[in-house]
Amino acid sequence: MRQCIVRYQPCIQRTQKEPRFKNLISSSRLFHGFKMYTLMSGFYRYLTQKDEFCVVILGLDNAGKTTYLDAAKASKVKGHKRAESSRVTSTVGLNVGSIDMNGVLLQFWDLGGQTELQMLWDKYYAECHAVIYVIDSHDRERIEESKEAFDKMIRNEILAEAPLLVLANKQDLPDCMGVREVKPIFNQSAHLIGSRDCMVMPVSALTGEGIAEGINWLVDCLKRNVDSRPPRNNENR
Ligand SMILES: Nc1nc2c(ncn2[C@@H]2O[C@H](COP(=O)(O)OP(=O)(O)OP(=O)(O)O)[C@@H](O)[C@H]2O)c(=O)[nH]1
Ligand SMILES: [Mg+2]
């Protein structure tokens, strides 16, 4: 004779167990979902993250630093409209701009060049990866003053490994000093420049001549120099 065993399961017990089981499944799904999300977003960040470098733009007042930054953006940023030169006023403090190119993000810090503002330059040295030094090639009277400010800057040990782009600006003006004239003056400081990457280039921030070439050179140097000055977003690699 077949026995029929009916287990007694009180209703109350079933209704208590089911929701607990369901909670377990849903929290484990949530956990895996979260893990997937973290993995996917980390992977996305890895694919899209760009090395970020900071470049400080220095030089005497009126050298053309702010005009240069505008020209640099015009040469590398699609759709950037140049500011009217009559609207560019002397920088007091800091003017910033960025360029996204060749897999890197360049952050430019254009500082004021007036004598009393030069004291602030070294506050930016620790965080910058390269220096652009702008010279007014048309201003023969202040070339020695510019060289002195340059020497003071490169003497600073914090900048020892930072690539240096020296721009003989205002090449569009008649009677300006060409690179052949500017280079020997700044080469007198070769012992201070040492082994860092250094290039003197003729440019016109007004016409845009030579601007893109300088930026390309700088980006190559920054990429080569990552061991001594790692990019901002990647300092722990
Ligand atoms: N002809 C000519 N003029 C230029 C050039 N670059 C800049 N200028 C002019 O030089 C003047 C000063 O330019 P800025 O860009 O304001 O100079 P700055 O170095 O930023 O000066 P501060 O902000 O005072 O340190 C402006 O009248 C510009 O139009 C250039 O390549 N050629
Ligand atoms: Mg300026």
UniProtKB/TrEMBL annotation:
Binding site residues for Mg(2+): T66, T91
Subunit structure: Interacts with SYS1.
Protein name per its UniProtKB record: ADP-ribosylation factor-related protein 1
Binding site for GTP: G59, L60, D61, N62, A63, G64, K65, T66, G113, N169, K170, Q171, D172
Pfam family, any one: Arf
GO annotation terms (biological process): Golgi to plasma membrane protein transport; intracellular protein transport; protein localization to Golgi apparatus
Subcellular location, record wording: Golgi apparatus, trans-Golgi network
PROSITE patterns assigned to the protein according to its UniProt record, in alphabetical order: ARF
Keywords: Acetylation, Golgi apparatus, GTP-binding, Magnesium, Metal-binding, Nucleotide-binding
Organism whose genome encodes this protein: Allacma fusca
A molecular function (GO) term: GTP binding
Tree of life domain: Eukaryota
PANTHER family named among the record's database cross-references: ADP-RIBOSYLATION FACTOR-RELATED PROTEIN 1
Entry's Gene Ontology cellular component terms: Golgi apparatus; membrane
Known role: Trans-Golgi-associated GTPase that regulates protein sorting. Controls the targeting of ARL1 and its effector to the trans-Golgi. Required for the lipidation of chylomicrons in the intestine and required for VLDL lipidation in the liver.
